[in-house]
Amino acid sequence: MKKIKLKKKVKNFLIISIVIIIGLIFGINKYKEYKYKQTNEYKLTEKGYTLEESKKIIKKLNDKNETYFVENDKNDFLVELISEKYFMEKYLYEYIDYKNDNKKKELNDVVAIVNVRANKEWYDIDTVKPTDLTKGNLILVNKFNYLDKDFEPEAITNINLSYAYDNNRVSKETNDAYVKMASAAKKDGIQLLANSSYRDYEKQEAVYKDYYYSKGITYADKYAARAGYSEHQTGLAIDIFTTGATTKTFETTEAFDWLSKNAYKYGFILRYPKGKEYLTGYEYESWHYRYLGESEATKVFNSGLTYDEYYAYYLE
Ligand SMILES: [Zn+2]
After folding, report:
1. Domain boundaries in the chain?
2. From ligand 1's centre to the CA of 112, what distance in Å?
3. What is the pLDDT of residues 131-153, one digit of tens each?
4. Rounded to the nearest whole angstrom, what is the distance from the C-alpha of residue 288 to the centroid of ligand 1?
5. The model's pTM
6. In this structure, which residues have their CB less than 5 angstroms from ion ligand 1?
7. What separation in Å is there between the alpha carbon of 178 and the centre of ligand 1?
8. In CATH, what number does 129-315 get?
9. How far apart are alpha carbons 177 and 229 in whole angstroms?
10. What is the pLDDT of residues 231-246, one digit of tens each?
């Protein structure tokens, strides 16, 4: 009798235990499911993103931005956008707005345009800001970043007349690098001549006004910088020519060819490349070179980016 009772007790105990365990597992799973449904990952899949896409969105965006996409309809190009190499989260909604307004633009272009602020009008009053002078030789001066009227380059130096027309001045470091470059070119049978370099605020103002009063604002803005917005005020920019060359012919010269291959090795980059007018704000200028220093010029050269893009992504 005792044995049977014991067996029954064990049996009951086992049954109850199994029921409890099953109940627990079920409950835990239900709780997990409930918890998962609260996550943005789940909510994004509910909006139509695949699980993989949801994961990517969560990895790339901060909580606030995740929530935005959880609360709004599926954005068809969001995943591609955040996968763009030069995507910057701070411009997320500007990319989206710009793409919506310019549906035919490729996303990499959208990213580049917004990164350099060119989704705004050049010289846009709400966008322009003083150049960050703490960047030294890497300062960015363009149609959104300006120098004060009294900004002057450090240790301004006359460029040696073997490599320049009269009255060309740049910062000492720029001069040293330029002379090194021009003498290396000379050894290769190439003559480089600096034609225009440092221009102070007043001089730039005069250049711009000349265009402005004779040809109007559109023309002036296309071919000259407004005072304070010219890279020539930095003392880090040189317009380089060779004897007989003009702005039209310089790119067909051996000197241009030599610079295209070698300028970065001496710390210079071509500042306004062909086909990038919409990013730099300037027509292609085969003659305008900007000193950055060897290390950074090499990085810019290898990146294939305009300096505006490079600065926005890596230095700002
Ligand atoms: Zn120039």
Report:
1. 1-32, 40-115, 129-315
2. 23
3. 999 999 999 999 999 999 999 99
4. 4
5. 0.91
6. 239, 288
7. 15
8. 3.30.1380.10
9. 24
10. 999 999 999 999 999 9
